[in-house]
């Protein structure tokens, strides 16, 4: 289990101290595929570097299997770090070495005898489904194949944790999917905990079991992917789940309601309180709202669940709000 406790990281800059991570708390259980999602500059890379202690947190703890990483000697830390492997957006392969030798590299450093390393590397080539690329050079591979070799190299040290830092951001959607399938397969087959750092909610949706939403160095919300996707509780979560103000269809919609905002506060608290106060999940099917001086104007189409009592409860809750009107739409065709 990885526990990140009250972790903060500041950097001195010409303008003063910059807080890149602010009191981050996360618990990642063994076997999770844990997504850490946030926009550019949210602090994702800094958090990854703190998790594997490439960067020393300013305060707080990184506790792995009950052991406080920051309390370890340099030597012990180097040893423990071998159980955390990493793959990157740009693959970081050694271009002058063949694929086999790239995979052998971490084993060479760890002093594994040459023949044993070669045998293991060939097995790993099989695992990543590129058994015929042992003697190829990285330049002869596609982006997806390079990432497969990088994954094989990451597995060479028999890690307990695989950190994926924007590992599919340079790949097209089909290749992305195949790499994500491979990562998922590795998680299941080898029992490796995976931490996925990404700015793409689609990646989280595709493979993660849990997710933390990071914004301005703070964890805004955490939960199972299902929880956060069906009912993001914070504005940061909603911005990621509904980037255009419209949701992906998450459940079959049986009742559709048009909600018109006439200058009340913002629309977002209404959606959140529908879930929290009424326990009703809604889909935002479409929205055309404007915030003028912090007041919401415009309209939104909400999909309500099948259960008629739930839908009626949601409708009367919406109608009880100030500066909001709501009507059922009977001719919605999606
Ligand atoms: N060494 C440093 N000195 C000063 N500021 C830094 C340093 N490293 C990172 N930062 C700042 O910390 C913030 C978080 O950076 P980080 O690279 O962790 O974000 P990110 O979420 O990974 O973004 P991206 O997806 O664009 O890589 C940024 O505002 C960045 O400018």
UniProtKB/TrEMBL annotation:
Extent of the signal sequence: none
GO-annotated cellular components: plasma membrane
Record keywords: Amino-acid transport, ATP-binding, Cell membrane, Membrane, Nucleotide-binding, Translocase, Transport
Molecular function terms from GO: ATP binding; ATP hydrolysis activity
Presence of the UniProt keyword Transport in the record: yes
Segments forming domain ABC transporter: 2-241
Superkingdom of origin: Bacteria
Protein family: Belongs to the ABC transporter superfamily.
Protein's name in the database: ATP-binding cassette domain-containing protein
């Amino acid at each position: 289990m990885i526990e990140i406790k009250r972790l903060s990281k500041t950097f001195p800059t010409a303008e003063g101290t910059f807080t890149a991570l602010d009191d981050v708390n996360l618990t990642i259980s063994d076997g999770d595929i844990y997504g850490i999602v946030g926009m550019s500059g949210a602090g994702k890379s800094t958090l990854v570097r703190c998790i594997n202690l490439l960067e020393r947190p300013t305060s707080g703890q990184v506790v792995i299997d009950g052991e406080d990483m920051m309390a370890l000697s340099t030597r012990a830390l180097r040893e423990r770090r071998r159980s955390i492997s990493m793959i990157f957006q740009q693959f970081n392969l050694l271009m002058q070495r063949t694929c086999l030798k790239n995979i052998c590299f971490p084993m060479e450093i760890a002093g594994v005898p040459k023949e044993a390393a070669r045998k293991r590397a060939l097995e790993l080539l099989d695992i990543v489904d590129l058994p015929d690329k042992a003697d190829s050079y990285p330049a002869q591979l596609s982006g997806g194949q390079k990432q497969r070799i990088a994954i094989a190299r990451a597995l060479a040290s028999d890690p307990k944790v695989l950190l994926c830092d924007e590992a599919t951001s340079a790949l097209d959607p089909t290749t992305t999917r195949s790499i994500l399938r491979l990562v998922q397969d590795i998680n299941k087959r080898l029992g490796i905990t995976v931490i996925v750092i990404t700015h793409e909610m689609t990646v989280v949706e595709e493979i993660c079991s849990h997710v933390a939403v990071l914004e301005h160095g703070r964890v805004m919300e955490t939960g199972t992917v299902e929880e956060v996707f069906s009912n993001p509780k914070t504005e940061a979560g909603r911005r990621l789940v509904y980037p255009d103000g419209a949701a992906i269809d998450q459940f079959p919609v049986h009742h559709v309601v048009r909600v018109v905002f006439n200058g009340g506060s913002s629309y977002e608290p209404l959606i959140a309180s529908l879930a929290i106060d009424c326990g009703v999940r809604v889909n935002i099917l479409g929205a055309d709202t404007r915030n003028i001086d912090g007041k919401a104007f415009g309209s939104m189409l909400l999909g309500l669940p099948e259960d008629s009592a739930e839908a009626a409860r949601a409708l009367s809750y919406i109608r009880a709000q100030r500066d909001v009107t709501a009507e059922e739409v009977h001719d919605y065709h999606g």
